[in-house]
Amino acid sequence: MSCIENNKIKSDRWILEFIADKLELNIDYLLEGIEEQIERRLNDFKDKDQKKIDEEELKYLINFSEEAECYDHAMKAMHLLFNYYLDNEMFERLQTVNSKYYHICQMAYTKENQIMFYLDEARYFYANKEYSQAKLYFANVCAEFKDIEELTGKLKRKYIISKYNLAICEIMMDNPKECYNIIMDLKEYINESEDKYIVANIYNLLAVSSLYVGDEKYTEYEDKARDLYGDNHKAIAIMLHNIGETYLKLNKQEDGMKCLIASFEIFPKNEEKERLEFIINSLDLFIKNEYNDTAAVLCDEALNVAILLNDIKVIDKAYYFKAKLLFKANNFTLAEMYMNLSLDSLKKFGNRDELSERYNELGHMYYKSKNNKEALKYFDLALKFKNKL
């Protein structure tokens, strides 16, 4: 039985039928080899919600595949585990499997597996805002596709997405000219038969980078992206937000704030969680540019929705921004209350670095309100947490 189970000998069908009958098993299960079993289990994982897969079972499948020297299957299983960690923001666990992923990739080397590994690593570094590292991996993927004119189907799509993300990394690293050059090359490569959403994203980025380099066709690119997005109001809102931020970086405040305000008018209110994140990530821009009334309205919306969704991280941010707005309005009593509510929320999930920074901000707030005793207390707490890092 052990030899049959481990593929060391092949059994006659009548023996397997006898065993299946005695053990009340499906004969098809006994007829499966190890590779077929792994393949079946991999397919089961692929059919599941990728955010709800059984982590331990997947890790077992990786180890089992390695022991059976089925490295290509181990590679596919590791790809699923790696993306499970990425999608659930489990960055510490990603670090623990990274070297093993590289080892499995070497054992299961094919061009396709190498590209899959590069793309996963690029996503990992991009999620950690390590854009220079992400750029290297996206560039490696592009380099793997030497004859781009001959690419079709999934390979062509991977090339386009990698090139697009390479351009994104450049603009995140404040290299708009390099971004513009990359995305302009990509524009010449794509055609109208490509996925409309991908093409729209390319024109979106082209519009943003064109503003930086002074290409007067930026409105043409924006209109093209808008047409391609169609009824996707969320995507249009994000595009307007990106253009608004670009205007602000170019010291064109009026144009920038006009785009930012328009983005919130367009972003669907029924997509509560996404809109909530959109608001929180934008409040600082409104406050820095003295659009405090608009910031206050958005902050109240964010706080109400965050409480309904019981999202402690967003509740912290909403309380924090509300405190900043109240402090700017010289309402120190309420500002102090909301800042402490924010701190209570942050203590439930924040790391030492985040707490140190918040204590430091509280110290500055008390110092500006001439309450030196409380200021010293929070500056002292900030130093204590910082020294423990």
Q: Return Rg in Å.
A: 27 Å
The stretches of 5 or more residues where confidence is low (pLDDT under 50) are none
Structural class: mainly alpha
Can you count the beta strands? 0
Distance between the termini: 56 Å
Give a quick account of the main beta sheet: strands, pairing sense, barrel closure.
Answer: none
Give a structural overview.
The chain is an all-alpha fold and 389 residues long. The termini are far apart. Helix content is 78%, strand content 0%. The protein has a domain at 32-109. The mean pLDDT is 88. It has 22 helices and no strands. Helix 5 (55-67) packs antiparallel against helix 6, helix 10 (153-172) packs parallel to helix 12 (196-213) and helix 16 packs across helix 18 (292-309).
SSE topology:
Blueprint: H1 2-5, H2 13-23, H3 27-31, H4 34-46, H5 55-67, H6 71-87, H7 91-107, H8 111-127, H9 131-144, H10 153-172, H11 176-189, H12 196-213, H13 218-229, H14 233-249, H15 253-266, H16 272-280, H17 283-288, H18 292-309, H19 312-328, H20 332-346, H21 352-368, H22 372-387
Task: Please outline what is shown here.
The chain is an all-alpha fold and 389 residues long. It is built from 22 helices and no strands. Helices cover 78% and strands 0% of the residues.
